């Protein structure tokens, strides 16, 4: 006899019957449903339902693409899942944009599900970010006022998202055992991903309230565990000190429910991480497009571990009759059939539905506040950013800063976070391990729980490990969740070459970043712009990357004094997508005129070249300030006036953002042009050498820009 009450067993069996009926219906109607790829939970249902039945609305869950039984146990209907199966307009998760069982949910009465991608294992970092957000909210008395309130509607503390109920993070919630947890569902094959290790490391290091549920069916797609894994997830977890792990039979509902009940209770009360390794059979295809009969040699053994007859017997052993069971099965089957017929008739998206929710609306649309307060002293660019972050942290408790070496001992390798840890404490300004993927991807979870993280990678050269998270999770979250989960974060990236930084501390990466849709990108040339854009980025509900040229930080490079600024006032904001005509000229019929379009260091080369040539009346200079959104209107208006255009970049120009912009200008202004639009950038070599002569030869300069101006004016 099970210790579980009959209501739990009955509800679990109904969910399992429903999930099984859905898998069977999809197989019976394969031609109708296989237009879009799907995977089902068949064989995994017991552990999924055991988990789903125990989560609360304040919990956050990151299911993966085989977790439809888990979603049913959250309270979703077959119809909801079928709308996504058929990519219908009213798919409640994504509006027909993403695959079956790729949920994103923000219903008040259900666990919250931020968006996650199909890339296996990638959800581990955002899920751990949620738990880190919980940990931050519960650290010290940072959010004491919120914890006393019922929610932010009655909360005197100004909160960025204004829709996160922080009352669940009280000591009372912990003692009552209903403090929220984060749940990350993973297949055992995905645990070999390096980014999963980053998540485990941080969960163990910070002792975060997260449950990693590992569903181990012994397979990747066609590769099995013996050929791809040196150990299973339970054994792997032993290497992370502070991550407690258990292994269970995930095909036995009662064992799964009782084991998870203890684990979840412990996490709610003790606020520490657990891993549950659940052995399950895979009784259906990997996906509808990869059929099990093509490669599986263990199907009979897998069917012998089917969770369905196990749960049916547990019902019979607990007083249910065969008639009771038959009725539950029949009701589930009829409900699934009715929902399928209804879903087939549902409306498809219209072409115009493609163009919604790529970004959430930002409140910052106009330049406001005092840019150059009277009597204020000029400060270097790095200090403008530092003061902006300090002002934000002082005003907003949900603002925090983390990355490598930004903590109290150093305050950043460029001193860009100096004094912040001392002023705001180690809970708000802290060092991370060398984990660019975690630094970037954790912001998805932090943002989801109403926080505003400012994070940084130490040099642009080291952004590459973080690109996976930036691309798959951060940039697509708003669009693929149909607007429910924009990721509000700022990623600071010191960039560019100066002073013999060598091949791993000098790169420009903007062309790669600008090819990621769904993020905003700033690249300021001076301190006032950096401060105004930093403030605008904070109040923007979307992800923002700020590229900060380290050669401009202290204006140590000759000819960059223009990067220093009178520090703008605290309320100064500069909207994205507004270029600055830094040097404006008038239309002239009898003199050759030219527009230079640039950003970052290129602006200084352009200004210096114009001055040294005595051509300030002939050269109009546009500082883009932001690379996305891009102020095309200002650019085109200028080029149509001057008739010639030079785009200046520090990147090697082949296949670059600058070259693409040149092409766009040429396309739109062709009939106004007196010469081809030209581009000048670094030499097209694989890296910037350490030797100062080679570095100087590699990158542009005022002198090189002057030569290019002469070439263009004399064309």
UniProtKB/TrEMBL annotation:
UniProt-annotated stretches for the region Disordered: 351-372
Record-annotated Transketolase-like pyrimidine-binding domain positions: 379-555
Entry EC no(s): 1.2.4.4
Gene3D superfamilies, per database record: 3.40.50.920, 3.40.50.970
EC class (word): oxidoreductase
Pfam family, one: Transket_pyr
An MF annotation (GO) of this entry: branched-chain 2-oxo acid dehydrogenase activity
Cofactor dependency: thiamine diphosphate
UniProt key word Oxidoreductase: yes
Keyword Chloroplast part of the UniProt annotation: no
GO BP, sorted A to Z: branched-chain amino acid catabolic process; response to nutrient
Protein name: 3-methyl-2-oxobutanoate dehydrogenase (2-methylpropanoyl-transferring)
Organism annotation: Bizionia myxarmorum
